[in-house]
């Protein structure tokens, strides 16, 4: 990926733990590595095909002067997020905030914090077998798309499937979506749980009936094994109600562990079942 680099932009702003820092203000130096594709801009020589670094500099200055935080960690985190939300061509940003006049009572050149954040590609499975199933799924898609740090990119058809695991319940309506997000895996998991709660999901029986079920299938190409979250989804290769709609929107997406495509997993499952 290409990079636009801004080095040591001087901003006088009011951030700090001590009252005199927030009242009197001080100088900060901001450096930014903005990762984007400049190929089209380079070929056309048109500014609108690139990210205007002058506009970004003014944005950084105005944003830091408009807000006040105690920690430069918060300055860096919030600024990076706002840059990614404001400039759609920027896929990833690394921001360094330097504080040359850090009041620690010792001689030093500066203290700095650097954060690197990016948009992530995530695939989520959706399911419902209670109430108005289609409305539950459509409401979940809409709610995710309306979140400031999530963008729904693709949604599969919703398909009717027989229940999995516990079969003495109504049929399911299932689908998959692809979204871009700034959230970490655990932050996204919490968001999905909040949407399930909003749909009045009750976790009474494992694999039992539910108004809304949202599962993270893939998050970029990471492999994550935490007590509360496993990515890729541990059982997706055995679930045709996941693979069929997922194949509609990502037929050649590869499982980072097995390196099999969604199409290959769906074909292998079909051969095992038949």
UniProtKB/TrEMBL annotation:
InterPro entries: Dihydroneopterin_aldolase, FolB_dom, GTP-CH-I_C/QueF, Hppk, Hppk_sf. It catalyses: 6-hydroxymethyl-7,8-dihydropterin + ATP = (7,8-dihydropterin-6-yl)methyl diphosphate + AMP + H(+); 7,8-dihydroneopterin = 6-hydroxymethyl-7,8-dihydropterin + glycolaldehyde. Its EC number is 4.1.2.25, 2.7.6.3. Keywords: ATP-binding, Folate biosynthesis, Kinase, Lyase, Nucleotide-binding, Transferase. GO terms for molecular function: 2-amino-4-hydroxy-6-hydroxymethyldihydropteridine diphosphokinase activity; ATP binding; dihydroneopterin aldolase activity; kinase activity. One of its GO terms (biological process) is tetrahydrofolate biosynthetic process. The keyword Kinase applies. Residues 206-217 form the 7,8-dihydro-6-hydroxymethylpterin-pyrophosphokinase domain. Signal peptide: none annotated. CDD domains: DHNA_DHNTPE, HPPK. In the N-terminal section; belongs to the DHNA family. NCBIfam families: folB, folB_dom, folK. This is Bifunctional folate synthesis protein. It comes from Mediterraneibacter butyricigenes.
